[in-house]
Amino acid sequence: MRFRSISTRIFLCYLLAICLSTLVAGVSFYSLVRRYIEREAGLALAREAGAFAQSLASGSRRGHWPLRGIPSPMIFIFGGRPIESHYVVTDRDGSVISASSPEDFPIGSRWDQVWPEGSMAGQPADRPVTRYGRDFVAGVAAIPGSPDSPGMVIVYTRRSVLQTLNMVFWKYLIQGFGIGALVAAGFTVYLTSRIVHPLSVLRDKVRELGRLNFDVGLDLGRNDEIGELAMAFDDMARRLSEHDQAMRRFLHNTSHELKTPLMSIRGYAEGIRDGVFEGDEVGLALDVITAECQRLQAQVDELLYLGRLESPSERYELEPLVLRKVAEGVLAALKGWLETEGLTVDLDIPPDLTVLADKDKLECLLRNLLSNAIRHATNRILVSAKDDAAEGFTEIEVKDDGPGFSPEDLPNVFMPFYRGRGGEAGLGLAIVKAIAEGHRGWAVAENAAGGGAIVRIGLPKNPGAVSTVNVQPGR
């Protein structure tokens, strides 16, 4: 594995987490075990002290002290192991009168001065108690009997002895944690491979996508975030494939549309050069060349405008506009064409209906919608608009009474230069769609129930609105 690879980083992170958790758990467990051992040892020593005190009391009643014959040091069993302990016997004043280890508690000394932590001051003397100190853990018991009898028995052991027992537990703990760490490391390797393998597959698919191979289905069979990433990748690949196909069609259609006027210009220019045209024919040929150049210029301008509209950097100067007033202005500019075609346009737009839009682009949108309808209408065109409060959009609809869209043309009519059933091609509806989407709106095309074509546009009431309509390509 490479050190900078994600698999290495995941493995090292898991390993670090295991080490830290093991260290924290080990230190905590060590402290708890140490306290537990000392507490249990203290209780055992207290029981030993109580039994020793009872033995001394019984001996004193028989007229002798049973100190002889007591092993020094004494051994008691704790945790299944023999533990070395010592005893101290004091009188009622706390002076040591007998000790199994005089170097710890000299005869004649006060035991609470030698070991201040073991003092019984203020403590009840009717039951054994436990005392803990820096060097010793002890059990203390008062000797029952007459007032002339000695006072207390202390049975103690050194902390270093208990530390040895604690180290035994610590050794077992380290062994257990070592086995657990090995198991966790194995699980970490498995988990890392489970995480990294789909990413490796995704990397290979991305490389395929970079080679324009869009048939790269990525079904990982997972329902987690990586599965969601795979679905997003598949969706991206599908969209890129659709975009690639659309661009290929666009280039084919565009080249065809530009080729036609260029071929005409070339033919007439060669005819003039070769003397094919004479007299007035030369003027007519030049007129054709001029007209084709103007047509070509218009197509190039529309292409440039469409490219600008589809650019993310294109600015939209939004302002409240009275829709009916804007529509009437566009109709006035198209009045001559409408009269020539013998068409009537009905406006069904409330006079107070306003939209938030860029004025120039809204006029361009309406002009292209009406131009498209004029080319296909038979007698009448209806332009209507209404507010959709539930969706937060203003819906504009242009309906003509022409033949409508053919089923095969309907999905493609918003494509630039798409040539449909009628044989006409252009950029009008492509520009309409780009302007609508630039306003964060939508554009759809469909056939009317009674015949004719309908193009509907949705413009948001506010810039933050998001389209909730499934946009279908239209005419």
UniProtKB/TrEMBL annotation:
| Species the sequence originates in | Candidatus Fermentithermobacillus carboniphilus
Annotated Histidine kinase domain ranges read 253-463
Q: Which domain of life is it from?
A: Bacteria
Q: Which Pfam families match?
A: HAMP, HATPase_c, HisKA
Read off the Gene3D superfamilies from this record: 1.10.287.130, 6.10.340.10, Histidine kinase-like ATPase, C-terminal domain
Q: Which InterPro entries match?
A: HAMP_dom (IPR003660), HATPase_C_sf (IPR036890), HATPase_dom (IPR003594), His_kinase_dom (IPR005467), HisK_dim/P_dom (IPR003661), HisK_dim/P_sf (IPR036097), Sig_transdc_His_kin-like_C (IPR004358), TCS_sensor_his_kinase (IPR050428)
User: Keywords on this record?
Assistant: Kinase, Membrane, Phosphoprotein, Transferase, Transmembrane, Transmembrane helix, Two-component regulatory system
Reactions the enzyme catalyzes: ATP + protein L-histidine = ADP + protein N-phospho-L-histidine
Q: What is this protein called?
A: histidine kinase
SUPFAM superfamilies for the chain: ATPase domain of HSP90 chaperone/DNA topoisomerase II/histidine kinase (SSF55874), HAMP domain-like (SSF158472), Homodimeric domain of signal transducing histidine kinase (SSF47384)
